[in-house]
Write a structure and sequence with these properties.
Number of helices: 2
CATH topology: Beta-galactosidase, Chain A, domain 5
Structural class: mainly beta
Order of helices and strands: EEEEHEEEEEEEEEEEEEEEHEEEEEEEEE
Helix content: under 10%
Distance between the termini: 36 Å
Largest sheet: 9 strands, antiparallel
Shape: globular
Number of domains: 1
CATH class: Mainly Beta
Number of strands: 28
CATH architecture: Distorted Sandwich
Strand content: 35-45%
Radius of gyration: 19 Å
Length: 333
């Protein structure tokens, strides 16, 4: 297991593992210029293999859930591995987060890059087709971490790739995320059933606890959820208000405590906003990741899209190229 480092002239540093393409650290300045790590993870890299809740990893072949692990494609039925109750989650038992990628450091016109490559064989976790994947992480002088995904297949298949980094902008995770201020450019979401798979509806969110069209603190949103009797925390796919396949700003998070700002840009139509109430994991520096330790903003196509024909398509055919880009941009107040 090897870590590669990206850095720029602003003292920003990013660590990437060849295992799972894991982002191990993102070290960026706060409003006083003090450098701090803003992602959760482990000091001992072996723990990413043994006990990680997808910390910082590339997720595939299919990010999020597929109901009952079943889908039909070109007249044939497929059964995927089940690893989340009755569902397939994040690519199955051994998804892209649990494999070694061929990794190399390259220099591009925009900055330092890490290029990762992996071929998922036909039948892997139940998915059809040999899928050749490339993921490139690039850090530029604007403190932007760009993630570019590309894939080819030799047989019609489905694909949905993302990254599962857990962020905390407060002084290297020194306190919980309740003070974070969030804005998401989405006026709809995809409701889920008791198994956390989509019902097929696309629902307006204005005025609900899920509404971040106007900036709100996470603490206020979490409290509003609890007052309405909902499950604590967020784990929802937002339908982004953007043009298809265009790279656009879709979310902004700020910490008044550290002065750090995270902006998310993506070409994807959706984004999973996830705030675990607690992880109960000892992470970096043997720090307990307890109550409200982090948030995830996972750019993606919608969960269970293979079974929802009105959702944006996740089908990839032979001769086509899958492309997706997401940027995590860091600023200060």
């Amino acid at each position: 297991m090897q870590e590669f480092e990206l850095k720029n002239s602003r003292d920003t540093r990013v660590g990437i593992l060849d295992y799972g393409g894991v982002i191990t650290r993102i070290e960026v300045p706060d409003t006083n210029g003090t450098i701090g790590d803003v992602v959760l993870g482990f000091d001992d890299y072996s723990k990413y293999r043994d006990r990680s809740p997808y910390f910082g990893a590339i997720i595939g072949r299919y990010a999020n859930r597929i109901a009952s692990g079943k889908f039909d494609l070109e007249g044939k039925s497929y059964q995927l591995d089940l690893n989340n109750g009755p569902n397939s989650l994040h690519g199955g038992i051994q998804g892209f987060d649990k494999v070694y990628w061929n990794a190399e450091k390259v220099k591009t016109l925009s900055g330092q890059s890490i290029k990762l490559q992996y071929t998922s064989p036909d039948g892997d976790q139940g998915f059809p087709g040999n899928l050749e994947c490339t993921v490139v992480y690039t850090l530029n002088e604007a403190n932007e971490l760009k993630i570019e995904y590309q894939a080819f297949t030799d047989k019609t298949t489905i694909i949905n790739l993302t990254n599962h980094t857990y962020f905390n902008l407060n002084n290297s995770g020194g306190s919980d995320i309740r003070n974070h201020e969030l804005e998401i450019h989405a006026s709809q979401f995809t409701p889920v059933n008791e198994d956390l798979t989509p019902t097929g509806e696309i629902t307006e969110i204005q005025g609900s606890p899920l509404d971040f069209l106007v900036t709100r603190t996470l603490g206020d949103a979490i409290d509003q959820q609890e007052e309405m009797g909902a499950e604590p925390g967020f784990d929802f796919n937002y339908v982004l208000d953007k043009e298809p396949n265009q790279l656009e700003l879709v979310a902004r998070v700020a910490s008044p405590l550290s002065g750090r700002i995270l902006e998310v840009l993506t070409t994807e139509p959706g984004m999973q906003f996830y705030t675990p109430p607690s992880l109960d994991i000892f992470g970096k520096g043997q720090k307990l990741y307890g109550d409200w330790p982090a948030f995830c903003l996972e750019s993606q196509h919608f969960p269970d899209s293979p079974n929802q024909s009105h959702f944006p398509s996740v089908i990839l055919r032979q001769g086509e190229i899958f492309k997706s880009t997401t940027i995590y941009r860091f600023k200060v107040l």
